[in-house]
Amino acid sequence: MRIHSENSFLPTLEARHASFTQVEKNIADFFMKNTEKMDFSTKNIARLLFVSEASLSRFAKKCGFRGYREFIYQYEKSLQDSERMGETVKAEEVLLNYRELIEKTYSLLDERQVSKIVKLLYRMPRVLVCGNGSSGLAAREMESRFMRIGVDIDSVFEPDKMRMRSVFLTKDTLVIGFSISGETQPVLYLLEQAHQRGAKTVLLTSKDDRRFDSYCDEVLLLSSLKYLSSGNLISPQFPLLLMMDIIYNEYVSANRYEKEALHDDTLRALSSKEERRTQVW
Fold first, then answer.
1. Are residues 127 and 242 located together in one domain of the fold?
2. Looking at residue 227, what is its pLDDT?
3. How many other CB atoms are there within 10 angstroms of residue 264's CB atom?
4. How far is it, in rounded angstroms, from Cα 131 to Cα 137?
5. Whole-prediction pTM value?
6. Residue 25: how many CB atoms within 10 A of its CB?
7. Same-domain status, 238 and 137
8. In this structure, what CATH number is given to the domain that contains residue 154?
9. Are the CB atoms for 68 and 57 separated by under 8 Å?
10. Looking at residue 6, what DSSP letter applies?
């Protein structure tokens, strides 16, 4: 749908269309339908529309301009305004999709289940979080954030390494798998092997499949991008990051003073490392 800015004169062309001659109507139709920047010189447009340059001049004056040059100046400005309006609409569409995901997350959220997962994070000596592709990026983010508040956590995001790590899992480990599709075989394999070795297992996925219950202690459902009007515009790890924030917030809230102190200590440690590096250089 074409969007006109408030100062656009295109609605004027539409309003006056009935009073134009056939030649003028052809010219008006061209400018109303065109959405691309090009060479708008009288010579080029006359050639494209099979009209004379004098016809373009008369048309511009009939539209209320002093001449074709003034007409084109306002027309190009209108095109720029339309592009900016189009960008705003596209941005709004993305933001609406994010809001929809947040609302879906809220409707799916089981706070008791989140509390169970937080208790596992406190209870288990070691945590391993895994994911592939964009889910792997979310796994690395979880490792980074929870490590800073004292959790003994590691992440793995390469399929071969997931299979290798499954051999060394014990009952002292909590394995958290990220798979939005619920079909990432290396992640599901690691969770199955972890369950067989007595480890606690949690899966974050948008797929509600009872088969996961056979080897997952908790299956935390995520909002899906699949049915959004522009789901391909949304970062695929967003539902995971959103749920991670919810878990993180509850984990920290259980002992906020201690966790915030640990977080500050890790930031100071990183800062002192950068200072030493600067001094060396």
1. yes
2. 53
3. 11
4. 8
5. 0.63
6. 16
7. yes
8. 3.40.50.10490
9. yes
10. T
